Amino acid sequence: MMYAVIMAGGSGTRLWPQSRKDRPKQFHSLTSDRSLLQETVARLEPAIDADHLYTIANKSHVKPIREQLGWLPESHVIGEPSARNTAPAVGITAVILQHKDPDAIMLVLPADHFIARAEEFRRILNTAEAVIRDDEFLMTIGIKPTYAETGYGYIEIAAEYKEIGEDQVFWVKSFKEKPDMETAQKYVASWRYVWNSGMFAWKASTILKAFEKHAPDIYEGLVRFRDALGTAKEAEVLKEVYRRFPNISVDYAILEKAENVLVAPADIGWSDIGSWSALHELLSFDGQTNVVRGRHVGIDTYNCLIHGGARLVATVGLDNMIIVDTDDVLLVVPKGRSQDVKKLLDKLQRQGRTEYL
Amino acid sequence: MMYAVIMAGGSGTRLWPQSRKDRPKQFHSLTSDRSLLQETVARLEPAIDADHLYTIANKSHVKPIREQLGWLPESHVIGEPSARNTAPAVGITAVILQHKDPDAIMLVLPADHFIARAEEFRRILNTAEAVIRDDEFLMTIGIKPTYAETGYGYIEIAAEYKEIGEDQVFWVKSFKEKPDMETAQKYVASWRYVWNSGMFAWKASTILKAFEKHAPDIYEGLVRFRDALGTAKEAEVLKEVYRRFPNISVDYAILEKAENVLVAPADIGWSDIGSWSALHELLSFDGQTNVVRGRHVGIDTYNCLIHGGARLVATVGLDNMIIVDTDDVLLVVPKGRSQDVKKLLDKLQRQGRTEYL
């Protein structure tokens, strides 16, 4: 059976001040009335039901997850005792799923992304499932790039491929870190690179074998946790093995080393909503120049993202400006500088004004 | 004796959203911890005490005046039954003062201006008093212009002057409406023009004679009010004569027509704080590039006015921007467009969103 594991641990710092430490991006309604987490779940329906849905996030985020997915069984919301990136989270959920269903296929999906074409997305998931149902492959979902983005990692595809229905699924040649602009432009022009979306599919048994081979230090903890599963010591052992887990992504710990990694290139209107500027881009279709949430009055205001709350935002003579108005913080930044929101957080941290983080 | 009459009826629309219909500019703390009204009063001390201080404003503003000048006798806060500009307000207070003291000298002072050099200001008031103590002159305080401002009216001075101590006090040749830039530049270069500050000094008896001669329609109402003063019908008659008063400034109704108008040129660091940009200019001394009230964190933020409330204002990559953050409205406008705040109010009015005015 297919299970979805939603990785809800992102921090979303570049969407500050809406996204906050205690309530990051995935718990906010940015693209619709539902939160990004709720959208991620809704996008899977009807393929995945409550019994086949798991989430994992830092323990401090268990509460907002329960609020937003109230119908999910308590045991399906896994709280990480400490922050350790995606490799340990994938390993722990793989252990849980395999314990429940030895043939479990797991989809790994970030909670805080946007996908415009949900139907096409589900079609790609079916393709991925078909690839791994009878074979020991590690599938990644690659996004066909639409421009030279320097904020994403890239996957280089090999010449070999499998045909699955109408889709071609390629062997992965290499993973590339976020490139500079020149390199990104070469990648996009070559048609041999796709964006690494952080979405994966594999059998729980396959990824656990990969941990054993490529990340034996993590695998040792996973075995200890497996042995404690369902016993009174489960929570205590989870805490203990987490303390020793390295802080490492599944890409780096496993996928870059494994030989059996495939990629399904997808054209699904995907964005990681990595900045306010990115949110503006994905919401400003239909020739709309301003994207407004909340109340606004403007004179000569063009190409602005106004993400407000209860108050009236009044603007005169602005172009390409982002205004984000929350209960306790107001942000004003030109679109071209929206990546630098992170610098504000660094500054606040240095100043000890942690109540705003 | 000298009396001060503070005209507290301004609407201050260009300082929206801090300045609001029910609580305009003069009731707000913009330049210090005290409101502009309180600053205007404090600036007169010790020359004027509570017994010699009067205020007049629309009746809807009587409450904030009483709140801010709690020590002022109730009868010294005059509420206008309807909005009629400065001529009727000057006439009515002249009647009240003359009734109390036939030799009353009245200073007429707007409540919402800024004066950097209070001591020099008081010296000029003494000069003005000396001019009118024994003569029937109408004195205006003119401001020596420091740049070609197109937002002020100008007073053209004549060649004839009187010497009063170290000051020269000139006959007025003409009053000029707000000029275009070219004209303003000529005015300033000529050394024959000063800004019309809206500050005046005259004996109550002198200005009433001027009303009789130059504005007989208003004078007729003033006489009716004088006859009702101290009777049970006073409030009713005030309401009735106000309804018939024309909506006209004292400059236009009297000063532009009278022959006995003098002007005392003053160099007192004056500003009418006519826009957020003007407020920024007058507060940004000492090479300070940003003027901040409230909490702020910024990266690459220069020459900005950040007039905040309780919340944190966070900015990246802004230059010459004005941000005004109030409880229910947030304004973002480049400095060069701050005059256009009025257009926002017009738009809100047209949209029927009067709760924001």
In the CATH classification, which architecture of the largest domain in chain A applies?
A: Alpha-Beta Complex
Major sheet summary line of chain A: 5 strands, mixed, barrel
Radius of gyration of chain A: 21 Å
Order of helices and strands of chain A: EHEHEHEEHEEEHEHHHHEEHEEEEH
Oligomer designation: homodimer
**CATH class designation of the largest domain in chain A:** Alpha Beta
On the 0 to 100 scale, the average pLDDT of chain A is 94
Helix content of chain A: 25-40%
What is the number of domains of chain A?
A: 2
Spatial order of the strands forming the largest sheet of chain A? 6-9-7-8-10
Instruction: Bin the strand percentage of chain A.
Output: 25-35%
CATH superfamily of the largest domain in chain A: Spore Coat Polysaccharide Biosynthesis Protein SpsA, Chain A
What is the CATH third-level topology name of the largest domain in chain A?
A: Spore Coat Polysaccharide Biosynthesis Protein SpsA, Chain A
Q: Which chains make the largest contact? A: A-B, 38 and 38 residues
- What's the β-strand tally of chain A? 15
Q: Which structural class best describes the helix and strand composition of chain A? A: alpha/beta
Q: In whole angstroms, how far apart are the ends of chain A?
A: 40 Å
Overall body shape of chain A:
globular
Low-confidence stretches of chain A: none
Number of alpha- plus pi-helical segments of chain A = 11
